[in-house]
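Reopening: Peptide/nickel transport system permease protein still failing for me.
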Amino acid sequence: MVNQVETAISPAKRRLGLRKYSRFGGSLASVLTTLFLLVLLTFIIGRLMPIDPVIAVVGPDADQATYLKVKQELGLNLPVLQQFWIFLKNLLHGNFGTTLLTGRPVMEDIARVLPATVELATVTIILGAGIGIPLGVYAAVNRGRFADHAVRLIALLGHSTPIFWIGMVGLMLFYAKLGWVGGSGRLDLFYEDIVPNVTGFLLIDALLAGDMEVFWSAVTHIVLPASVLAYASIAYISRITRSFMLEQLSQEYVITARAKGVSRRGVIWLHAFKNIRVQLVTVVALSYGGMLEGAVLIETVFGWPGFGQYLTNALVIGDMNVVVACTLIIGCVFIALNVISDLLYKFFDPRIK
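Support: Ran it again with your exact input. Result attached.
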């Protein structure tokens, strides 16, 4: 009898395993196809842009012989399809080429600037989610009251006010006039290159080195750009959280919980909020990814030597090696955030397993 049961279960297990492998294979194929299309589309757009990368290298006053020599060295004299094929083969070998401006390997430059943006985005999302989610819940619970209108006004201003304008006003007020925060860059010039570059994140490296002066200098420089970015994040997250909570607070299970005598706090946080955590994971993850690629204006205003400013400079001169590499990194970041979101879904909602 036991053998019959095991024989019956075994094919079912095999089918379940095949489905899992099939889903994994489909997901992997989708990721690879997305990355390939990203590379192809970015390469085509780069070739259609009215920018000559050779001029960026030799300058507008170079003679014809120098121009043609550099063009040949860059491979730009070859047919476009052949250029793309060579570029694709280099990518598969992990070779993204060199930058036009510095002459260094692209990945070396990206490894230098990416930690600055990750550090800024991480501090920003902590502030944005840490303030925006409670504000959204508070607004939903007090729907139609003064608190609700105040939160909605904050969100409206955060969406409608240009972020670069807020940054410039913040610099003039808190740095130039009051002197409460640091100016441009990540550190005061006096503290540059004092602590060893272990992780690339100045706040962490300063703590690892035990140098509190460098740490507080880094804090004073990051607090204003992170707060400006966080304001836009708070506006978005609070509005979405309010919408999710209003939907849950109108459900029958909430009315039943209130009828059974569950406390107001319990109804809000243990019932209604518990059911929107999965949705908020997606909102916060996408907000974080958007900051990594969309902090260009803030990095420009505050002179922050980050990924966004580096990509913008590459676009201006048509440095496609940098543009494609940055595009792939952004695509990989969003893919990684989606994977992390899926794992968190299973943690917050065991039914998904």
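The mean pLDDT is 82. If you still see a failure, please send the error message rather than a screenshot.
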